[in-house]
Amino acid sequence: MSDDDKTPVREVITDYAQAHFRYFRTADGTVYAQKNGHPVARPIRSQGTTGSHRQELMVGLFKDGRGVFNGTALKEALDLIEALALTEDVQPVHIRVAPGFDGATWLDLGRNDGQSVRIHPTGWNIAIPDPREVCWRRTQLTGELPLPAKDTDDKGIDLLLRLCNFASAETECLAIAWLIGCLGPSVPVPAPFLTGPQGAGKSTGGRMLVRIIEGMSGDLRRAPKDEENLIAAVAAGWVTALDNLSHMTPDLSDAMCCIVTGAENVKRALYTDGDVVRARYRRPMLLTGIDVGVIRPDLAERLLPLRLERPGVRRTEAELWAEYAEGLPVVLGSLLDLTVKVRAAEAETPTDLRMADFAHLCAQLDAATGLGALTAYRTSLDDLNDDVIEGDLLAQTVLRHADTLEVGAEQRMTSTEWLHHLSRFYSSDELRPLPKGWPTTGKVLSDRLKRLQPTLAARGVLIDSGRTSEGRYLEMTRLQAPPPHEEKRMF
After folding, report:
1. Is 488 within a domain?
2. Per-position DSSP letters for 208-227, written without gaps between them
């Protein structure tokens, strides 16, 4: 055979790849490869040491007797495949949880055979999703989940609550609501903050909650030192769990707010001058710690405090985790059963809470089970508001000044006038110096009060701003403080 009759190596590789894989692109232009009939997709430009499409293609060519090809031929073939895939329709890829057709939701079990859980309006079942409905993206953080058990009669929920040292029935109810929220791909959920005395099992309880969604390989990790590393960790998994927090910097607090409710990060692509890399993320988070100090108001609205207590009887780690691993299929099955019931329940959406989707989920949980999740959620937010006020001297001063006003009274001044007025009010009683961090200019005071608006409004003080012909102003109105929510025992 003459050289002209030989098929170029890159065409052999390209023909084989197109026959055995489906190639498509995502909205950001990344091209993925998906083996025919399998829901897991891999980026074709992945340089990872394990599980890359390049390795998958090389192994397939070798096992099917096509030969062993050098890097140059593979690169040329993948360049051509990538160019062809850019003309295909756009399809998203998902980590762990994904929306499906007809109102269904999919949960990736992380199995090699591609079996996943389909949660639909009338129940749930185990199946391999159609690649054109769901494309799973997996990373080193994607652990394997066991096949969930059927017909559990809520035994798994009872087992989970018995293993975790939750301090009250209200805390247990909120933990269950959060787990149900984690199975929703489009519902932002507040971040549970597991608190309690030393030895209460906060880290162990956090691991148990995370591993229901992420498998036995899921674990807690230390908070990254910078936002870029935090975003990289968040983008590679579904639930981000940070352990033993003792201090919350403003940057970390802002980053957590973005992670919970969703944001986008754009940075320059490596080895380029003009290209950029976009990373969209909205993930469930979980935090543990005894005390993180002062909590900023915007983060407080996105937290879900779960208090634990010290257990009366201690058990070994091996015994505890052996029981947990054995019961995980039943725990997951019970959670799926309850999720179906909750999603089918009808309930009104509370309109006075920041995390309205999670509040609606709590209302659905109450309608399906008769529990008091929504009341417990409101109470937890009141407690967090108290924590914000206790850690902010400016908020305390504003509330003390508001107590001197009559209900319905309004007081309007410029921000600079308010600064002088509140500073004098703070120091007049004991002639004490202004504390560190006190606003130094009217602009700083105005920004601080805007951040404190939800916290102060929950205590019956409304802060508003506006402009007249004379300039901008801040207005304080003393409202009737809302009555505390009645506590309700749920079990």
Report:
1. no
2. HHHHHHH-TT---BPPPSSH
111 shares its domain with 24: no
Q: Are residues 349 and 457 in the same domain?
A: no
pLDDT in tens, the chain (491 residues): 444 445 688 888 889 999 999 999 888 888 899 999 899 998 887 655 456 788 888 888 988 888 888 788 888 888 888 888 888 888 999 999 999 998 899 999 999 999 999 999 899 999 999 988 999 999 888 999 999 999 888 899 999 999 998 989 999 999 999 999 999 988 899 999 999 888 888 999 999 999 999 999 888 988 877 777 888 888 888 999 999 887 778 888 888 888 888 877 776 666 566 666 666 778 999 999 877 667 888 888 899 999 999 888 888 889 999 999 999 999 999 999 999 999 999 999 888 888 999 999 999 999 999 889 999 999 999 988 888 898 889 999 999 999 998 898 899 999 999 999 999 888 875 567 888 889 999 999 999 999 899 889 888 999 999 888 888 899 999 987 655 544 433 33
Q: Residue 279 pairs with which residues in a beta bridge?
A: 265
Question: Does the CA dihedral 455-457-461-467 come out positive or negative?
Answer: positive
In sequence order, the β-bridge partners of residue 194 are: 288, 306
Distance CA 211, CA 321 (A): 11
Provide the number of structural domains found in the chain: 4
Cα distances (Å, whole numbers) of residue 292 to 13, 59, 198, 300: 55, 50, 14, 12
435 backbone dihedrals φ, ψ, rounded to 5°? -75, 165
| Cα 482 to Cα 248: distance, rounded to the nearest angstrom | 30
Tell whether 78 and 183 lie within a shared domain.
no
Count of other CB atoms within 10 angstroms of residue 226: 10
Cβ-contact 200, 309 below 8 angstroms: yes
In a domain, 145, yes or no: no
Same domain, 220 and 107: no
| Residue 167, φ and ψ in degrees, nearest 5 | -80, -20
Do 282 and 178 reside in the same domain of the chain?
yes
> Strand 116-120's sheet: what is its strand order?
97-99, 105-108, 116-120, 123-127
Residues 73 and 199 in one domain: no
Range of the domain at 208: 155-374
**Dihedral sign for Cα atoms in the order 92, 98, 104, 109:** positive
Say what angle helices 442-457 and 373-390 make with each other, to 10 degrees.
150
Closest CA to 458 of 353, 321, 355, 361: 353
Q: For 58, phi and psi rounded to 5 degrees?
A: -65, -45
Same domain, 186 and 259: yes
Q: Which residue has the tokens 């407080």?
A: 300
Distance between CA atoms of residues 179 and 165, nearest Å = 16
Calpha distance 445→70 (Å, rounded): 65
Flag whether 300 is in a domain.
yes
